[in-house]
Amino acid sequence: MITSSSAAGRLLGLATTAPHITEVLEDLLSVGSGLDIVKRPITEEEVGPLVHLHSRNPVLAVARDGELMRFDDPRASELQRGDHVVMLISHEDDGSQK
């Protein structure tokens, strides 16, 4: 769990060393505009290698059986029935989450 004070402290630290990263994080904190993180179930056609997922949106994690696996976890490399993907989307695009 991240407390708001530790998140604010991290943002403040990043602002001094990497201001562009801070802009991205602030954008993510504004739900419904700019960048958002969404979770959606995969379709039957998407079962298989994660690298074959046809999406402009980067996959951050795969949720499977109550467990969240980051994109770099080898177990997330193969999408299975019932999986959900956690993706970064932009509201500047056409609004599509795929």
Protein architecture, described:
The protein has 98 residues and is α+β, with helices and mostly antiparallel strands. It has helices at 4-17, 19-29; strands spanning 35-41, 48-49, 59-64, 67-70, 78-79, 84-90. The chain has 2 domains: 1-30; 33-98, Regulator of K+ conductance, C-terminal domain (Alpha-Beta Plaits, 2-Layer Sandwich), CATH 3.30.70. The chain contains 2 helices and 6 strands. The strands form 2 sheets. A 4-stranded antiparallel β-sheet has the order 1-6-3-4, with helices on one face. β3 and β4 form a beta hairpin. α1 packs antiparallel against α2. The longest helix is centred in the first third of the chain and has 14 residues, at 4-17. It starts with a helix and ends in an 8-residue tail after the last strand.
Fold-level CATH name of the largest domain: Alpha-Beta Plaits
Average of the residue pLDDT scores: 86
CA-atom Rg in angstroms: 15 Å
CATH class of the largest domain: Alpha Beta
Helices, strands, pairings?
Blueprint (H helix, E strand, L loop, with lengths): L3 H14 L1 H11 L5 E7 L6 E2 L9 E6 L2 E4 L7 E2 L4 E7 L8
Antiparallel strand pairs: 1-6, 2-5, 3-4, 3-6
Describe the structure concisely for a colleague.
The chain has helices at residues 4-17, 19-29; strands at residues 35-41, 48-49, 59-64, 67-70, 78-79, 84-90. The chain is α+β, with helices and mostly antiparallel strands and 98 residues long. Helix 1 packs antiparallel against helix 2.
